[in-house]
What we know:
By secondary structure, this protein is α+β, with helices and mostly antiparallel strands. The chain is built from three helices and seven strands; from the N terminus they run E-H-E-E-E-H-E-H-E-E. The protein starts with a strand and ends with a strand.
Amino acid sequence: xxxxxxxxxxxxxxxxxxxxxxxxxxxxxxxxxxxxxxxxxxxxxxxxxxxxxxxxxxxxxxxxxxxxxxxxxxxxxxxxxxxxxxxxxxxxxxxxxxxxxxxxxxxxxxxxxxxxxxxxxxxxxxxxxxxxxxxxxxxxxxxxx
Length: 145
């Protein structure tokens, strides 16, 4: 994990690669178009990528619901790099950004098969999430910072 550079995308070309990575991991496998990837928070969010040799292998996004609460979305790790602590590092960095903005709580809507992953970082399941357009069961989780 030492050779991974974590950073925000810094050019339009890097943002295109980031969008494509998010789509390939999260949306393409369930038949969603790349256009379905964006929401109203895209331009005001904090975006994070993990890069090895110019290749994006991890990402996550933090947007701000209000002055006290942020939300993690679009967490994705390339399947060849999963279970190596990279996802935990992405969460740690997103939480650090939230703390800089004096955020008290982070929420996220986890696909049910990754709930245990988020619990390792201190997130608690609070309710079933019904708003997903993916057809995949989700649970809303939160962590007080």
